[in-house]
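Sequence design from tokenized structure. All designs in this work follow the same two-part layout: the structure record, then the generated sequence. An example of the structure record is given first.
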């Protein structure tokens, strides 16, 4: 029997590597992602591509303070 291994997904998109507490993908399919983190900011990013979320495929659109 094969075992499945899991690893945590760590994304540090907030100041001083604060955790992300909430993430919301836009339902309309424009690739926008809103994230709220421990630094009390909400950042909206645009995802490029269809599969991966890496620093190369995501750009910051704006930040709400």
């Amino acid at each position: 029997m094969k075992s499945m291994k899991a690893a945590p997904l760590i994304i540090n998109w907030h100041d001083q590597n604060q955790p992300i507490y909430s993430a919301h993908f836009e339902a309309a399919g424009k690739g926008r992602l809103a994230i709220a983190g421990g630094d009390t900011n909400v950042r909206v990013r645009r995802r490029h591509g269809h599969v991966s979320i890496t620093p190369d495929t995501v750009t910051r659109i704006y930040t709400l303070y």
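The mean pLDDT is 77. We note this feature because it recurs in several other targets discussed in the main text.
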